[in-house]
Design brief:
This protein is α+β, with helices and mostly antiparallel strands. The protein has 2 domains: 1-35; 54-138, Hypothetical protein apc22750. Chain B (Translation Initiation Factor IF3, 2-Layer Sandwich). It contains 3 helices and 4 strands, in the order ααββαββ. It is elongated, with a radius of gyration of 32 Å. The chain starts with a helix and ends in a 6-residue tail after the last strand. It holds the Pfam family RcsF.
């Protein structure tokens, strides 16, 4: 009886060793297969700068301009257009943000919105909002 038992133990050990070998081999294979994986991300400098571009432009109300040293740069506009039924409806926040992006591209640090117009459906947009503004360069004090 003892003999049968001792002959059975090595076969269990062999099965156990074989299972370990298969698991380790599979793990090594997976690890090496992923080692040549190219990683691509949208976190490059251009995307990062574009994402924060609107935040470089301060929105001013007309009364806030009194007493400020500023220079008019250009008229800008921003639009939001819903092209398809499945798209989000036109949004005034998106239109204003797009105008701020255009102002930032002109090196403006301020913007004064004149008005935003909501247009009826036409051939290109189901809903459309366009905001008109003035891009300005505000001379900031040294402490700001």
């Amino acid at each position: 009886m003892l003999l049968c038992h001792s002959s059975r133990v090595p076969s269990i050990d062999k099965e156990h060793l074989m299972l370990r070998f298969i698991i380790i081999s599979f793990t090594v294979l997976l690890t090496t297969a992923c080692s040549n994986l190219d990683f691509s991300s949208n976190l490059d400098k251009k995307n990062f700068d574009d994402y924060f571009k609107p935040s470089r432009v301060t929105v001013y109300e007309k009364p806030q301009l009194q007493g400020l040293d500023y220079q008019f740069i250009a008229a800008v506009d921003g639009s939001s257009c819903q092209q398809e039924e499945i798209d989000r409806p036109a949004d005034i926040k998106e239109a204003r943000t797009n105008a701020r992006i255009k102002a930032a591209e002109m090196n403006a640090n301020g913007i004064v919105f004149q008005n935003c117009l909501i247009f009826e459906q036409d051939a290109s947009c189901i809903s459309n909002i366009i905001c008109y503004a003035r891009a300005i360069s505000v001379k900031l004090s040294d402490g700001e």
